[in-house]
Amino acid sequence: IREINRSYLTISDRISTFYDDMIQATVYVQGQNKAIRDSVYQKYQIEMNIPGDYVMSLEADSLLWFRQEIPKISRSIMVSRFPYRSENQFTKEGIIRMRDEMGAYISSTITGSYMQVNAIDLPVFTEVTEIDGRYAVRAVGIWEIVGDFMGGAFVTYAILDEHNDEIVVLDGFVYSPEERKKLSMIYLDYILRQTKLD
Q1: How far apart are CA 68 and CA 73, in angstroms?
Q2: Are 175 and 108 in contact (CB under 8 A)?
Q3: What is the pLDDT of residues 29-55, one digit of tens each?
Q4: From CA 153, how far away is CA 75, in angstroms rounded?
Q5: Neighbours of 107 (CB within 10 A)
Q6: What is the pLDDT of residues 162-189, one digit of tens each?
Q7: Cα separation of 91 and 139, whole Å?
Q8: Which residues, other chains included, contact 68 with Cβ-Cβ below 8 Å and sequence gap of 6+?
Q9: Residues in Cβ contact with 45 at an 8 Å cutoff, skipping those fewer than 6 apart
Q10: pLDDT tens, 59-96?
Q11: What is the DSSP secondary-structure string of 49-103?
């Protein structure tokens, strides 16, 4: 566990860099979804290039959720904004709280189920980074559906929007039981990292 904590982010970054050329060549091979891109911009004033085969799953007051369904793999992206109140929101605990608020909108077919971060079975790893030249914190870990037997991996970016005194939260998560998830997470991470804030 200590070695995973020490080495995870360095190794993960090297793997992502290795796949970058392939991802750039294939992630938008089916074009882009202009309708979802326009919805994200109108609601949150951010520019996201969304692959053409994504569909909108939920448009709520404080959340957009869209996803891609391919055989045995479901890749999802959530977008939201939170008022910026303190630096504590950029701690591991703060990011988990914001993601859990977003996850409350996601459920399975079981009534009362909802998504939350599972920081017990695998630690949540965070690192300071930048998105579009703005201060951001990246978090990776696993999620689960409370009330059902579902789970998977996620990557979250919390981005400081100083102009609007808000935090933009971008999240990608995958559900693919018994399938490898690493490549899906690299694809989602790539899409999120291309985001631009107005």
Answers
A1: 8
A2: no
A3: 889 999 999 999 999 999 999 999 999
A4: 10
A5: 17
A6: 999 999 999 999 999 988 898 899 999 9
A7: 10
A8: 51, 53, 54, 55, 74, 75, 76
A9: 164, 197, 198
A10: 999 999 999 999 999 999 999 999 999 999 999 999 99
A11: --BTT-EEEEEETTEEEEEEEETTEEEEEEEEEEE---GGGGSHHHHHHHHHHHH
Helices marked H in the chain = 2-26, 34-44, 92-103, 182-193
Residue 173 tokens read as 């998560």
Cα 54 from Cα 76, distance rounded (Å): 9
pTM of the model: 0.90
Nearest 10 degrees: Cα torsion 137, 140, 142, 144: 30
